[in-house]
Amino acid sequence: MLPSDHDRWLQCFHCGNVFLKDNVAQEGMLKTELEIVKPSIHQDEHIPKPKHRRGFNERLQQEPEIKDPEVRKELKKGAKLISYSEK
């Protein structure tokens, strides 16, 4: 004969101790069947691109205002600006 609250308790298989169900983390149930879901996106639909890309910083992409005419002349020739600071 089972006690009236038998559904509220769990017994450990290894040590035999009895614990309240509310205090025990139970393992999930394993499933043997896999459910295959086809994607709902059709080839004709347009997927919008995200506005901001990871690692993209708009502040770093802005060109600095260069007042030195010699530096501007070299940049127009195709030179690459590594760093620039006004004194």
Describe this structure in words.
The chain is largely without helices or strands. It is 15% helix and 7% strand. It contains two helices and two strands; from the N terminus they run ββαα. It has helices at residues 58-61, 69-77; strands spanning 9-11, 18-20. Strands 1-2 form a two-stranded antiparallel sheet. Strand 1 and strand 2 (18-20) form a beta hairpin. The radius of gyration is 34 Å and the shape is elongated. It starts with 8 loop residues before the first strand and ends in a 10-residue tail after the last helix. The mean pLDDT is 77.
- How many β strands by DSSP? 2
Low-confidence stretches: none
Query: Order of strands across the biggest sheet?
Result: 1-2
What is the average of the pLDDT values? Answer: 77
Largest sheet: 2 strands, antiparallel
Structural class: little secondary structure
Radius of gyration: 34 Å
The end-to-end distance, rounded to whole angstroms, is: 93 Å
- As a percent range, the share of strand residues is 5-15%
Oligomer: single chain
Q: Helical stretch count?
A: 2
The helix/strand order is EEHH
Share of helix, binned? 10-25%
Shape descriptor: elongated
List the defining traits of the structure above.
little secondary structure, single chain, 87 residues
